[in-house]
TrEMBL record:
GO terms for cellular component: cytoplasm. It comes from the Bacteria. It is an enzyme of class 5 (isomerase). Gene3D superfamilies: Nucleoside Triphosphate Pyrophosphohydrolase (3.90.79.10). Coiled coil: none annotated. The active site is at C68, E115. InterPro entries: Idi_bact, IsopentenylPP_isomerase_typ1, NUDIX_hydrolase-like_dom_sf, NUDIX_hydrolase_dom. Residues 31-164 form the Nudix hydrolase domain. Keywords: Cytoplasm, Isomerase, Isoprene biosynthesis, Magnesium, Manganese, Metal-binding. NCBIfam families: IPP_isom_1, PRK03759.1. GO terms for molecular function: isopentenyl-diphosphate delta-isomerase activity; metal ion binding. GO terms for biological process: dimethylallyl diphosphate biosynthetic process; isopentenyl diphosphate biosynthetic process. This is Isopentenyl-diphosphate delta-isomerase.
Amino acid sequence: MATNDVLILVNERDDILGYDTKAACHHGQGRLHRAFSILLFNQRRELLLQQRSAEKLLCPLYWSNSVCSHPRKGENYNEAATRRLVEELGFSVPLRRVFSFEYHAQFGDIGAEYEHCAVFVGQMNGESIQANPTEIAAWKFIGVDNVEQELLRNQEHYTPWFQLEWTRMLRDFRDQMP
């Protein structure tokens, strides 16, 4: 996504307050805006993780959830998640929204993530991954039962939003994982 794409500014209740560029939303302390994360599971109950591209301004080369991005002006969460899944991985599967949360993560002088993030889950059924190299440096599957241990061992290699959403998935929505 280009830094001049127009994102949706919101308040703590996710009410739309206005719009601003992606660059402005992530500048300094950040401005609260809409985002989403997708957690994709294969038939072996493994989670698809992606390593973010080295070109990313925030968290380059960190490991994260399957797909994450922002709804653009005029898009709802579902439309944006479906669009971005195809743009990043080259396929589409049905997605189900599970929960939303708000977080703030500062990255020194570079900028911040300050997002109202909707979390979606989806089930892969043999789709071929065509990772977009401008977005994804690498990808891997990891067993659901191993994700928590991996996060504990290598916390510094994972995005803060993925760590928060995975903790909540395990605590409140384990039975809703495909």
